[in-house]
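Anyone opening a protein record will find just a pair of labelled lines. A complete record is shown below as an example.
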Amino acid sequence: MTQPRPTGNPWLALPPGEDITRLARDLSAAWQSFLATPNGAAPASVRKVVRESWLRAKERGISPETVDQTGFLVEEELKGYRSAHPMALIRPVVRKLLVEDAADSELLVAMTDEAGRLLWVEGDHLARDRAVGMSFVEGADWSEERVGTNAPGTALALDHSVQIFGTEHFNRSVHEWSCSAAPVHDPLSGRIIGAIDITGGPRVAAPEVLQLVKATVMAAETELRLHLLRSPHALTEAVPRLETLGAVRPVLHLGADHNRLSQRHAEILLLLAEHPEGLTSQRLAVLLDEEELDDVTVRAELSRLRKVIGAERLGSRPYRLLTELRTDVAEVRSALDRGDVRAALRAYPGPVLPESFAPGVVDLREELQVRIQAALLRAGDTELLARWTSSVHGREDIVALTAYLSSLDPAAPLFCQVKARVDRLNREYSR
């Protein structure tokens, strides 16, 4: 039987003294077992950070055999995008500290944007040629959402430096490679702006390589601070954020301004955020009220909304958002997508606009609540079930209560209390 790996720094792939040959053999067996077992958990011999990443990849339906790249940025499009990106400001530092010594070293040095897109891939020419076979090239998307477990993608997903050794990668085509990566932050806002990665053979998984990457990130962020002292412009524009969850009045955060919104304006902004392609006035009217609204009323509401958020943020024909808008709904959904049920519950103070009867909002509310319930049942975590079933929005959830009851010791006093609640709800629902 394969034994659990020794505890220690969970972000390091190769603790001192690790037998690389044995580890590679054990990980290969664990990877094959994981893929062959439907809905199965990864073996305990796999690091927790890797196990959880594998589960996220499997739940998203990511291929473990091929790297699927359909949205390359190429040539002029890539050139323009990366030259305007704040990661371009630190490229000279990264080249000085990492790239200049990477020639003939069988190592690659990559820089990504905040979403995992490879902006620059430099270093050993032979290694670059080999990396083409797995689409590890400039302009490709190497987020966890696209290719599964990998150091730059997982570092961005978890906002933490991390190493991935060989078969710890979810995709078979990356099993001959190891990588060490760390996220880079905007020193002013704290937002992730990208990641720095070293990719190569097994030696890249040694602890000192991750230390080198982290030191480079520190130097790069110092360079960004110096840039901010010289320039009055922020690296990244503060992204507006819409809060619609729970019983409090909806709020739109615009930089330092916090604007309380009418329910109708919150409904419109949320629906537009959910439909980035835009909505006609007729379609928006149906999503807001199937019977009562006409085009004139919708246009009047949008005219008033422009005065609240700024005319430059709202387009027409079709109505659409012209700038990025973060929503608390999307944040909960993102936590669920990556399998972090605990974070999803923390970000979920209650239903979406609970007093709204707009059909589009009602659908969102029900979808999010069903996804949270499903994630809780799948996780089977007694603590999380207890938290959910004691909350205002989960205390009538008989499915979750039944799952919570099954996780308790029948001899415990709490079992009787929960059973009484389940029995009461069963009686009420059977009337």
Q: What stands out?
A: The two ends are 53 Å apart (CA to CA). The chain has three domains: 1-235, 241-326, 356-430. The chain has a mean pLDDT of 87. The CA atoms of residues 319 and 407 lie 48 Å apart.
